Prior knowledge:
The protein is about 35% helix and about 20% strand. It has two domains: about 5-130, Rossmann fold (3-Layer(aba) Sandwich), CATH 3.40.50.620; about 145-280, Rossmann fold (3-Layer(aba) Sandwich), CATH 3.40.50.620. It has a ten-stranded mixed sheet, with helices on both faces. The chain is built from eight helices and ten strands.
Amino acid sequence: MFNKVLVATDFSSSAKALPYCLFALCPNLETEIILTYITDDDDTPQSSAYHTAMEDLKSLEEQIQQAGYEDTCIIISSGEPFEEINRLAEEHDVELVLAASHGKSYLSTTLMGSTTFDLARVASYPLFIEKIYRADDNQVPLLRKVLLPTDFSRESLTSLNVIRSLRENIDEVVVVNVIERSRNDKDLSVRITLAEQKLKELVDEIKLYGVKASYIVEKGTASKRLRHIAEDVDASLVIMSKTGGGLIKGLLLGSTSQNFALNSDRPILLLPADETEDDDDAIQHID
Length: 287
């Protein structure tokens, strides 16, 4: 599915897992891979920092080539990291960018660094953000248990394409819908029943891919409930759309995905909305 990718590393502890994430998301050994590191403006090709970065990138490239990938290249750029990564992604027309989060930043509850957050905000391409969520840094296989949040909008269902593409390597998928609003208990019951019907259809479709699948329906604030659900089911990856039904068209990072990405400790694959389709083709979501 992803034939040309950009791996943006800063050689942090979380970035060390990026090659294994690359192998999981891009099993096709013919994938074109661009490795990049963004230096400070003061780092010239003659500086020791630039030389160290190049040596580390060559080591990373060798690791990837030993796994069977041959079409690789290295780019070192300088400037504001998220701006340069975004520029390279668009300039080279990549289909996926892989980056790593630094963990907690200036806010004690925020689990996404400023670079990855800014990149998530502006990216118009699929963006994978690696996060270290185990105390011993011993990550489980990325595709062991995939969490698939949906509000049944067309945008949120684009993640099914990823499941279909990677079906041979995914162990299990959990599809979840969070009902944020209801007028009364009767209305909530109706919404839960409708959500369960739609989720069963999605689960049945995923099972046709040969993947184990189940669903969860909950009520509450979507970003908070999704974060707790991801921990409860021990999700190894969360795949979600950056926009969804009811959000402003053109807004690149919706409130639910933004809050989840900021505060969840799980690796996440953010998918852009497909603006090529007509809005009338969207699957009706629950208001």
